[in-house]
TrEMBL record:
GO terms for molecular function: rRNA binding; structural constituent of ribosome. Belongs to the universal ribosomal protein uS15 family. The keyword Ribosomal protein applies. One of the primary rRNA binding proteins, it binds directly to 16S rRNA where it helps nucleate assembly of the platform of the 30S subunit by binding and bridging several RNA helices of the 16S rRNA. This is Small ribosomal subunit protein uS15. Keywords: Ribonucleoprotein, Ribosomal protein, RNA-binding, rRNA-binding. One of its GO terms (cellular component) is cytosolic small ribosomal subunit. It comes from Butyricimonas faecihominis. The keyword rRNA-binding applies.
Amino acid sequence: MENWNTKIQKGLEKIGLCRNKTYLCGVKINIKSKRLYIMYLTSEKKEELFSQYGKSNKDTGSVESQVALFSYRIAHLTEHLKKNHKDFATQRSLIKLVGKRRALLDYMKKRDIDRYRAIVKALNLRK
């Protein structure tokens, strides 16, 4: 009799994937406690965001990079909350993320209004 881990392992081997921390279509897959967790934010996606909005793909500290990362995470959490409207822990973390992004945008608006306008336009934050 096979346990759940062996069944998942055989299924992953059938489609050509190994056991832990594998990639399928750019999405990281982790097997933990009888569930298949799919990571929505991989390091490759972070590097792509940082290279697109920051100065380089290693530029993790600039305000533009942080705002872009927060916006990506906010979009993901918003989609999650549309499906799971009673998930109040996620709702709280979404509100905290929006506040962090707002604080960074306020800082940028005070320091350099041109950079602020550029990032708002690039990320489509205003309608």
